[in-house]
Amino acid sequence: SFFGTSGAAPVAAGAFALVLEANPELGYRDVMHIVARTARIPSLTQTNGWIINGAGFHVSDRFGFGVIDVAQMIALSQNW
């Protein structure tokens, strides 16, 4: 089976590669900010446990910033 961190890591790596292809000038901190700004809260989960951190982003101990949105990441990276 292909799930959990074994499945998530290559999917995320592919997403990051697309972002860097859209804007090769980005550094790792830029990519981290883009992920945080574009992630969305999973619709199939309870909203319990989500807080707003000091930077104003929703964050969860279980889901981090949420589900990556590759299309939004690419769009934001092109104008970063």
Report on the structure:
This protein is mainly alpha-helical. The chain has one domain (4-78). It is 49% helix and 8% strand. The protein is built from three helices and two strands, in the order H-H-E-E-H. The chain has helices at residues 4-22, 28-38, 70-78, and strands spanning 50-52, 58-60. It has a two-stranded antiparallel sheet. Helix 1 runs parallel beside helix 3 and helix 2 (28-38) packs across helix 3. The model has no long low-confidence stretch (mean pLDDT 91).
Q: Secondary-structure blueprint of this entry?
A:
Elements: H1 4-22, H2 28-38, E1 50-52, E2 58-60, H3 70-78
Overview features:
mainly alpha, protease, two-stranded antiparallel ribbon, 80 residues, Peptidase_S8/S53_dom_sf, disulfide bond, single chain
In short:
The protein is mostly helical and 80 residues long.
Radius of gyration: 13 Å
H/E topology pattern: HHEEH
Helical amount among residues, as a percent range? 40-55%
For the biggest sheet, the summary is:
2 strands, antiparallel
Mean pLDDT: 91
Oligomer: single chain
Could you give the count of β-strands? 2
- Give start-end ranges of low-pLDDT stretches: none
End-to-end Cα distance, whole Å, is 37 Å
Please give the domain count: 1
- The helix-and-strand class reads mainly alpha
The coarse overall form would be globular
Range of strand content? 5-15%
Widest sheet: strand ordering? 1-2
Counting H and I runs of at least 4 residues, what is the number of helices?
3
